[in-house]
Amino acid sequence: MSNELATLRAKEEIKKEANEAKEALKAFKKSHKEALSDANKATLKTLTEDYNLKRDRAISYGVSFRQDLVDSKTILSVEHLKMFFTYGGDYKTKAVHDISFQIKEGECFGLVGESGCGKTTTGRCIMHLYNITSGSIYYKGYRISGGTRWNEKEIKWSKIHTAEKIKAIKEKEARQLSSLPKDTDLRKEIEAAKKSKDHEIKELGMMSDDEKEEAISEISSRYDPTIKELETLLKNASLSESEQAAAIKKLYSEEIKSLEENEKKHVYEQKELIKKIKYDNRHLNRHLMNEIQMIFQDPVDSLDPRMTVEDIIQEGLHIQHEYNKAENHQKCVDMLEKVGLIPEYASRYPHEFSGGQRQRIGIARALVMNPKMLICDEPISALDVSIRAQILNLLNDVKEEMGLTIMFIAHDLSVVKYFCDKIAVMYFGNLVELASSDELFKHPLHPYTKALLSAIPKPDPRSEKHRVRKIYNPAKDHDYSVEKPTFQEIVPGHFVLCNSVEFSKYKEEISILDQSRGEKK
Amino acid sequence: MENNKQYKTIDYPFVVSEKDIKRDVILSVRNLAISFKTDEGYVRAVRGVSFDLYRGETLCIVGESGSGKSVTNKTVMGILPNSSHIDSGSVIYQGEDLTKIAEDEFHRIRGTKIGMIFQDPLSSLNPIMRIGKQITEVMIINGNHLKHKYDEIINESLIKFKNDKRLLQIAKDELNYVKKDSKSTKEMISKANEAYLKEKARLLPIIKADKVALNSKKKEANLAVKTLKKEIVSRHKKLEAPIVKNLLNFKNLSENYGDFIAERRRYISEIKVTNKEAKNRALHIMEEVGIPDPDRRFNQYPFEFSGGMRQRIVIAIALTADPEVLICDEPTTALDVTIQAQILELINELKEARHMSVIFITHDLGVVANMADRVAVMYAGKIVEYGTTEDVFYAPAHPYTWALLSSIPDIDSKERLEAIPGTPPNMLYPPRGDAFALRSKYAMKVDMKAEPPMYEITPTHYASTWLLDSKAPEAIMPKIVSTRIKNSLAKGESHE
Question: How far is CA B287 from the centre of its chain?
Answer without folding.
Answer: 25
